[in-house]
Specification:
By secondary structure, the chain is α/β, with parallel strands linked by helices. It is built from 15 helices and eleven strands. It is 37% helix and 13% strand. α6 runs antiparallel to α14, α8 (294-309) packs across α10 and α8 crosses α11 (360-384). The protein binds glutamine.
C-alpha cells in the first residue's frame, strides 16, 4: 500500500492523474477494509462532496481528512467518545471545520478518542479502544488516538486532533507520524467540544511537517466567535519551509534529560540531535526549573475547568437523558451517572473539590500561580534559544490494559508535553526512529506564534530522513 501525503494528493489532483472523487473513494475503501482491525473511526461519512466549495482555486480542494469526534460538523453525529453524546447530531460546523470546508476539503469520518479527550491511551472511549497499527496489542496513545491511527495506517492522508496536555503529540509519537499543537489561540475553539478551555487547542496529525504547514494555513485565524482566538496574522507557513537552519540555537532542558529516559530511546534522541547538528544547528543546555510541577499543576487546572464545562450535560437540553425522570434531582444524577464513564467522573469530582470554597486557595489558586512560573521558565529560555527539543514521551507504545487501573502512571505519560499547554506555546512531535519495531518521537517547542519555525525545522529533518515515511506491516497484510 502506498500512503500519500497531502502534497502528493494535491499534485495528483492538479495534474488530473486522479479525480478528487477517486481519492475520496480510495480512502473510504481503505477505512472499510481496515477499521474493524483498528477501530479508528466512530462514524464514516460516506456521502460527502466538495461541491459546496466557495473557493474553486483552493490548493487543497478535494483533499479528504479525518476529523476527531470532538469537532462539531454540521449534520454529523458528534459523540466526543462519550455515551453522553451518543445521540447528538451537530447542527453547525466548528470554525476550523468551516474554514477547511470552504477550501473544498472533504471529511472522511469522525475519529475515535478518549471520552471528552480525557486519557492517554484511547481506553476511556465509550466506543472501545483504538488499536495501534504498529502492534494491535498496544495503544496508539490518546486522546487523539483514532486520528493518529487513521493517518499511520493510511486510512486518511491527514487528520485533525485536539491537544489539552499532549493529545496530539503523544499519539503522533506512538504511531510514527507528525503531530502539531499550535499556539493557544492560533485556531478557533468554536465548535470544538470543551474539556479545559484555557488549555485546549486544535491541531494536526499528518505524515509530514509540510502537510501540517499546508493545512494550518487554512485552519488558523481569528474568529469573533472565540474571544480567546488571536488576531495575530496567519503566515503562509509553506513559504518558511526552506529557510536555512544554520545558526539556530536549540535548548536541551536538563529536566528532560535527567537520566530517566531508557538508553534505547536516548540513543535515538542523540542520533537525531546529531542529524540536526549536520544542518548547522547549535545545541545548548538550559534549565526549566519549574517544569517538574507541570503534571500536578495540570491535574488541578484541567479537572477544575472540566468540572465547569461538563456541567452543561444535564439530560435536559441535548445528549443522553435518563428514562427515570420522576424527580428532577434524581434525574440529573441518573443522567450523569449513566452518560459519563469512570475517568470523566474522576475528573469532575477532582475539579469540583479543588474549586470548592474551602480548598480553592490551596489547590486551584496555587496551581494558577505555578502555571505562571512555568510560563516564565519558557519566556526566560527563549531569550537564549530559538526552540527547545526533547523526547515527546518516556516510552514507545505501551500494551493495552497496562495502565488503565493506575491513573497516576497514565497521567505521567504527558510529562514532557503538558508544560507547553500550561504556557500556550506551540510544539510538534516527529518520528525519529524505532525501538523493537515501535516508533518513537522527538518534540520541538517554540515561542508563541512561531509555528513556522517548528515546521521549517522538522521539514528540514524530514528531507534527509525517512522515519516519517515508514508504513506499519498491517497495511501491507491487508493489501494482499
Ligand atoms: N492525557 C492528558 C489528559 O488525560 C491530556 C489529554 C489531552 O491532551 N486532551 O488529560
Amino acid at each position: 500500500m502506498k500512503r500519500h501525503t497531502v502534497r502528493e494528493l494535491q499534485d495528483m489532483i492538479a495534474d488530473q492523474s486522479v479525480s478528487s472523487d477517486e481519492v475520496y473513494q480510495l480512502y473510504l475503501n481503505r477505512i472499510k477494509a481496515m477499521n474493524d482491525s483498528i477501530n479508528a473511526f466512530i462514524s464514516i461519512e460516506s456521502d460527502e462532496t466538495s461541491s459546496g466549495t466557495e473557493e474553486n482555486d483552493s490548493e487543497i480542494k478535494g483533499v479528504p481528512y479525518a476529523l476527531k469526534d470532538i469537532f462539531c460538523s454540521e449534520g454529523d453525529k458528534t459523540t466526543c467518545g462519550s455515551k453522553m453524546l451518543s445521540n447528538f447530531v451537530s447542527p453547525y460546523d466548528a470554525t476550523v471545520v468551516k474554514n477547511l470546508r470552504k477550501k473544498g476539503t472533504i471529511i472522511l469520518g469522525k475519529t475515535n478518542m478518549d471520552e471528552f479527550a480525557m486519557g492517554s491511551s484511547n481506553e476511556t472511549s465509550f466506543y472501545g479502544n483504538v488499536l495501534n497499527p504498529w502492534d494491535t496489542e498496544r495503544t496508539p496513545g490518546g486522546s487523539s488516538g483514532g486520528s493518529a491511527a487513521a493517518v499511520a495506517a493510511g486510512m486518511a492522508p491527514i487528520a485533525l486532533g485536539t491537544d489539552t496536555g499532549g493529545s496530539i503529540r503523544q499519539p503522533a509519537a506512538l504511531t510514527g507520524i507528525t503531530g502539531l499543537k499550535p499556539t493557544y489561540g492560533r485556531c478557533s475553539r468554536y465548535g470544538m467540544i470543551a474539556f479545559a478551555s484555557s488549555l485546549d487547542q486544535a491541531g494536526i496529525l499528518s505524515i509530514s511537517a509540510e502537510d501540517a504547514a499546508i493545512f494550518l494555513e487554512h485552519m488558523a485565524g481569528y474568529d469573533h466567535k472565540d474571544s480567546t482566538s488571536s488576531m495575530e496574522e496567519v503566515p503562509k507557513y509553506t513559504e518558511f519551509l526552506n529557510d536555512n537552519l544554520s545558526g539556530k540555537v536549540v535548548g536541551l532542558p536538563k529536566e528532560f534529560f535527567d537520566g530517566s529516559l531508557d538508553s534505547k530511546y536516548q540513543g535515538l534522541v542523540s542520533d537525531s540531535i546529531h542529524e540536526y547538528e549536520k544542518m548547522g544547528i547549535k545545541f545548548k543546555d538550559i534549565s526549566l526549573p519549574n517544569i517538574k510541577y507541570s503534571v500536578p499543576t495540570y491535574y488541578v487546572v484541567a479537572p477544575a475547568e472540566c468540572s465547569s464545562n461538563l456541567a452543561r450535560y444535564d439530560g435536559v437540553r441535548f445528549g443522553h437523558r435518563s428514562s427515570d425522570d420522576s424527580d428532577l434531582d434524581a434525574f440529573y444524577k441518573k443522567t450523569r451517572k449513566e452518560g459519563f464513564g469512570q475517568e470523566v467522573k474522576r475528573r469532575i469530582i477532582t475539579g469540583t473539590y479543588v474549586l470548592s470554597a474551602g480548598y480553592y486557595d490551596a489547590y486551584y489558586l496555587k496551581a494558577q500561580k505555578v502555571r505562571q512560573l512555568i510560563n516564565q521558565d519558557f519566556l526566560n529560555a527563549f531569550k537564549e534559544v530559538d526552540v527547545i527539543m526533547g523526547p515527546t514521551t518516556q516510552q514507545s507504545a505501551f500494551k493495552l490494559g497496562e495502565k488503565v487501573d493506575d491513573p497516576v502512571s497514565m497521567y505521567m505519560n504527558d510529562i514532557y508535553t503538558i508544560s507547553s499547554n500550561l504556557s500556550g506555546v506551540p510544539a510538534i512531535s516527529h518520528p525519529i526512529g524505532f525501538v523493537d519495531d515501535l516508533p518513537f518521537g522527538m518534540q520541538v517547542i517554540a515561542p508563541h506564534f512561531m509555528e513556522h519555525d517548528l515546521l521549517n525545522i522538522v521539514h528540514k529533518y524530514q528531507m534527509v530522513t525517512d522515519w516519517h515515511l515508514q508504513i506499519p506491516g498491517i497495511c501491507r497484510e491487508l493489501d494482499r
